[in-house]
Amino acid sequence: MRRVKGRDTAPELKVRQVIWSLGGRYRLNRADLPGKPDIVLAGRRLAIFVHGCFWHGHDCTRGARTPKANRDYWTAKIARNRARDVAARAALEAAGWRVETVWECELKDMAEVRSRMLALLASPPGARRARGPPGAGSRGRDAPHGASG
Question: Which secondary-structure segment (H or E) carries 40?
Answer without folding.
Answer: strand 39-41
